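User: Predict the full complex structure for these chains.
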Amino acid sequence: MITLDVLTARPDMPQRGELERWIARAWVRPARSGGGYVFAEIDVARVQLIHQLRAELGLGAQAVPVVLSLLDQLYTARRQLRAVAGVVQAEAPDDLRLRLGQVLTDIERPGLD
Amino acid sequence: MDDPYKILGVARDATPAAIKAAYRKLAKTHHPDLNPNNAKAEERFKAAASAYDLLSDPERRGRFDRGEIDAGGAERPPPNYRDYAEGPAGARYGGAQHIDPEDLNDMFAQMFGARGGMGGGGEGRARPGRGQDEHFTLTLGFIDAVNGSTQTLRLPDGRNLDVRIPPGADDGRVVRLRGQGIPGWSGGPPGDVLITLQVTPHRFFRRDGQDIRLDLPISLTEAVLGGKIEVPTPAGPVRVTIAPGSDSGQELRLRGRGVPAHGKQAAGDLLARLCVSLGKPDAALTEFLRAWRPEAPHDPRKHLEPGP
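Assistant: Here is the predicted structure of the two-chain assembly.
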């Protein structure tokens, strides 16, 4: 958990004003504590990601929320699929597991028409 | 290796002078020469020296701050957003919402629905989010699982939760404690605690749905002459009459002595399969059998003969 001051003092991080704009747009959502922000590890990594998208890939302010939204949906889906896979692995009977493997393979095959 | 800032008791943005001052103060207090035979002081002295070693070097301090090296100075791979986003912490930015296990459609609707995690990013305010669920495993004995019980689960954060185990709980069953998980954010509800039960096998009872099975040894005398014997059940021993001429393989059904009734489920039975146990035959029994000529000789292996 680190504060806004500490984070923006790092050379690989955006300027303070820039980061405050990101927070205002809810691109980053650090927790609040005693009037200030505190950044968990995931928040720091997310700031770094946005910084890379902006500074290195030259993504404009219009494009960032689109990319973030797609990434968030992707990671949510992957977390949920991972949870499903865990339950299937632990509890599903063998024939159901085989069937799921088959279905997942088939949907990635190009159509025959 | 602990956080060197914490060891020295300085802020993350402390100046080099402040770090030096903090280290000097600790070094003076815990110096081994001033604290002979005080292992704790020596340990603190060493920790402070190692922390100061790292933080007094601007380059290494910078690398530690950026997460490139750990407190011991060992290289660490640069943190990757994906590592966090796919882990439990990712729920902070996910579209996490409560999914009723009864309706998996909700989950798929959410996975493929139009609503994105950042809501297009233009909201300017964090949406309330439900806290995450926490998963634990609780091991309990066979009898406690059959009869139902209340177990105390100690969480990593020091809380103790009373977990009510319903009668007839199976191995692998998941008990949900609503609202006991990770707190939500922005006014969202807390997550649940999900506890997977692990039931240890019993020495002689076995579950068979609502029934309990037991191999019940009886003596030769009890088998031939019958008699009253005590039979263990999950709810305690009961006295049972063995009919004269009982034999191995016969099953006694003790109605209502299996898994107790719960909900709409009626109580199960205890199924005790008799097995005659001879023990060591004494001289009298051996003598008797030598002289014994049965009226109707019995072939116990008749059913093993090859058929037509």
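The mean pLDDT of chain B is 84.
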